[in-house]
Fold each of these.
Amino acid sequence: MSDISTMIVPADGMTAMVRHIFEAAGAGGEEAEAIAANLVGANLTGHDSHGVVRVPRYLMWEKSGNLHFGRTAETVIDGDAFALMDGNKGYGQMIGREAVDLGIAKAGQHGVSVVALRRSGHLGRIGHWAEIACAAGLVSVHFVNVAESMLVAPFGAADRRISTAPVTIGVVNPNGDDFILDFATSKVAEGKVMVALRGGKPVPDGALVDGEGHPSSNPLDLYGDIGPGENPDPRNGPGALVAMGDHKGSGLALACELLAGALTGSGATGPGKATHNGMLSIYMKPEIMDDGHGFGASVANYIDYVRAARPVDPDTPVMIPGDPERKAKKARLQDGLPLPTETWNSIVNAGVDLDLERQTLEDIANAKPMSTE
């Protein structure tokens, strides 16, 4: 299969294969399913940077002791409408759900809640957590940082000082599609550079700087030289990611470091390799703010009004945040997940390293080469 540029993998097959790999690595059945479903879910929504491309890195973190199976979040401070939780370096797919469920429960009881989460394993696509809050009828805001993951140069700098620091806002739409704004404050997420490194979509020009601070699109400026069989480490390169929106994006990223890192106790990013996520989340029940002005109708009407704007390209309708993910999910559930062969091979090889049979993994996934016709 190495001469095929892209593999097409059914979502259920990919989920089953990833679950099988993590069970072989030591995860319990429920945890392996949560990890697999979350990663595949990111691919389904078009966010390949937060999808199955991360399987080898998760396993590397587990092996190094930076991530642990079977851990749950500890509630350090528990107030009526707020909480501080410690993820104990457990998998974010489990820890994140615990934190979100607690925030939803407290907001349901008190109308609003704030949950600070520290020391969680990689939380995946943060938009997923906002979608869960919307499904519970809530508005939510999430600030995230990545401690000891200096990848981004602040505006005007050639040196790294910031993590990719995602921000997510979910606004429930009782009468239609929810608004899900989800982005890294870097010009591109680190995972998108990893996808490019693995043979996927190239990095946009100027999304990186080299070691001298000059614009670059070369993934090796982030990862450095990679030896045979090595997992790429974005800390090793001489360059950096660039903050989105010049000084504005850089300032927002710094706010994430202070809110999700310093305030939660997770730690603002700095040198080191003990990577973990901090997240500060705010949940709001719209009913407590609606004095009869009709929140639901207002949200739905405005979304419709924005979508009805005259598009520059008649064949490309105006979208709201969340629409691209819904569109991608519909297509990929039908057509399968497109994976660059290098990404596919890295995942299969991770399973082989756990003494799983390559043919068994390929049979579980039911992957096919992309047709060139």
Note: The chain has two domains: 6-67+336-369, 74-288.
Amino acid sequence: MNIGVVKETARCESRVALTPAAVRRLVENSNRVFVQRGAGERSHFPDSSYVAAGAEIAFSPAEVIDRCELLVKVGNLTRDEMQQLHNHQAVMAWFHLIVADRDEITLLLDKRIAAIGYEVIEAVDGRLPVLQPMSEVAGPMAVAVAGHLLRSTSGGRGILLGGAPGVAPARVLILGAGTVGSTAARTALNSGATTYVLDLDVHKLRRLLTVAPGAITEVSDAATVEELVPPADVLIGAVLVHGGLTPHLVSRPLVERMQPGSVIVDLSIDQGGCVETSRPTTLADPVFRHSDVLHYCVPNMTADIARTASAVLSQASLPYILALTGLGLEQALQRSPELARGVFTLWGECANKALAERWSIPHREVSTMVGRQI
């Protein structure tokens, strides 16, 4: 199969979809890989490393898209890239279509694109095997960002996460006990912060305590959120509604009761955000204030550690890319339930129930399009 990798053009997006090591594996499996010139430069993967791995360097995104059957990206498609796609092409990316414009979904359907979202590839046991390793990176990053923003020079409260002898540590409140919440809790505890974690699922809280045994856990409800948000020095939003919009668990009035200089890091922002006052920001301008509370809401936060994040994404997505290239799209979707659950659109149909409900468009299961029951 011909596989294409383009240079990401979103603002401050420094990651690349495939590393040279992944390209080598694909070439060894009889695939051709076309990499746009400079695609890996900002992740410190030079063109020469891709050539050494067997890739062919292309000189424009249009050339890559024209020559490939499977386009592998990091971020969602740009308008230009969408226009350049040819009918029935397959694309893998962090689509986050639940917060996309309806025009984008319409274009994918009209061009009969097989759109596979990393964020909705799901194992039988409910794990999200591509999202999970990225979340393991994002959790510790969130605590590091919060610690920086708490500094006086950043406009924060001027406190240290771990406190000092005779001085109380910071209070960190984490909403969500999934992978992001668990890794953030572990990092916050290791920094010496007093760490609270809320979740609706007591089983997740129990698992969290195996990796962050010093955390204070509570089952989330409106009263508990109302009690714990105002005194928090740091609030980390780590809520995930698989494939759907994230509900606002923290209201605007509650944010306005937080202490001046406190910090919100809303990691749910790529699915709409779990704090009512959150809005997407960029790595170039990552922070805004509301009621003197600092908000950090960067959807592609891990682009700030581009080399590590690119390697993590490449490793996690490679098994699914190998399945697609080895079996072909239809056979891969038949044999891999995980991959089938990652399909947003296929052959002009919407295959994702949450997306169909969001835009009131017809929904059709992948299994009815590719043959036997998945």
Note: The chain has 15 helices and 15 strands.
Amino acid sequence: MALTIIRRSMLAAGLALLASAASAQDYPTRPITLMVGLAAGGITDTTARLYAEAVSRNLGQRVIIENKTGAGGGVAAAAVQNAAPDGYTLLVFSGSQHATVPAVSNAAYEPVKGFSPITYLFNSVVVLVVPANSQAKTLAELHDIGRKKPGGLTVGTPGLGSPSHLLGAKILLSAKVPAETVHYRGGAPMMADLVTGRVDFAWPTLSTGRAFIADGRLRALALDAEKRWAPMPDVPTLDELGFGKEKVASWFALAGPAGMPPALVSKIRDAFIQASKDTELQRRLGENGTPIASSTPEEMGRAMAAEWETMQALVKTLNIRQQ
């Protein structure tokens, strides 16, 4: 009797594997949705659209971007976590933001257990900018202004827990500069307020900020990068300014709901890796200062778990609370 049960279990497992392989082989038979938790126009959105175009060509199926904003990306993350694990609803997200939102609030998703990691997509480089009429010409001058200004500086972020938010918070804490943080639903609405002076400064990605810097509406004071960026050779890096230790994780990645079959995860990963070799995508990401990245699902899963542990500790250190 026991032997019969074991054989039946083995048969069921074998059939499940065959079904999984067959499902992956046929995929995709309908459009794929990439969920983006921030507003259109920001780095997550614009890069997701570039990948969507290339992946669509490779797979012969439409790849749709859905901007599902709210809760610093938490609404989109919850929607993907609760979707069917069939590969048709995927999430493009910031590693640090994905971990920070549930660390500061009762988020409706599990940042690690709720997802099937697939691959990294890119890294972001951010730049400290102030409005053109700001009196600050350097990071040190901006900090001096903040220490003297009643109530301190106002800093805009593209969302709670974004790399820009955490980097700015760590630097302000290290420099002992008081500030009020204003969170937006993406980079585009943040920039609209920044250029009009409603906030004193922000850390947008190069992709979001470079046009504003080029036309003189914003002034760049510092760059979070390994070296100076060629189009802005006079802008120093954080390492040069003594804030190298304040850097935060800057990777963005792709994931699906927990429980996706390994064969399906592998096929989707291969499609995005192939897309990253597209010459137009490489050119656009290079211009935007967002270097392409990739990983195995296992590597990305370990990074997600490590980021979750890191963000829980960092949130306590910075005393960050959901606004």
Note: The radius of gyration is 21 Å.
Amino acid sequence: MKLLSLVGEQPMPILLPARFLQPEENLLVCTQRTKKIATHLQNILGGGCRLHDLKAAPYNLQGVSEELHRLCTAGEWMVNLTGATKIMSLAAYRVAQQLQLPFVYLESENRRSLLYRYRFEGDRVLPLDPSQQPVALPELITLDDYLRAHVGGYDEGGYHRGENGRLDNGGLFEQAVGDALKNAGFEVKAGVRPKGVRDQIEIDLAFRLGNQAGIAELKLGGRENLKSGLDQLATAGGREYLGIYTAKFWIIARKLTGSANSLRSLAQARGITIIELPNYQAGKALAAADARQLVDAVRGELLPKPSSAA
């Protein structure tokens, strides 16, 4: 089986189905705008993955349909409709119908990874396997996969250190938080800097649970500029870097009070979850209650949420 995927701005709708379906060949159809993401995915998927630069304009339904039709005439193909423009998805659907090819769609909203699989029977659309529709995807990626799919490459500097090479107060807090997450089963990386913008963006902590990932900016909450943490998260979690599906956390070793309390509305507007750990003591592991609060808050954002129809 060969899998044709339409590459959009977000890589996970392409990577997760490809990892689950394990096709003999992955063909990633991309535009000039999405070529970078397609290249990241090709590097991860490795052998058997190739790119196709769409020649037709991505909003030209007839042109895209004809081009995709030519790509799928030889071999047993399945089509992933999840990514790219709506016109490209519509064109791929038309081609799948014309050639009677099975197709899939990944639901990613509310942290779910549900793969819907369909087949054609003439003009009728039927589940590919009625007993397994949809499929809740198992854990398919590492944190390294997630980061490279979005930014290509990155450096991992670890917890923050002072000029003497030892963990400073900020690094000790990062380590305490990182250890609490690791103990709860999260995969964690510290001091992540995407290559190409490493002087502008440093992610204090990145972590993964299942197929979902989050990033965190940590602040002790003293005289440092608290708002800078929100700015870093908004930039790192933007569409052009770690994308719209990456959860963002602002973890502070104090309670927000007084004028700092006004930052709550700013965080909410940017989709950032605030976690306050006022019982933290420098150089020590998080207290059990704080560790539970941290883990529960992060899990609550990363674990799949019930369907609105439930």
Note: The chain has a mean pLDDT of 90.
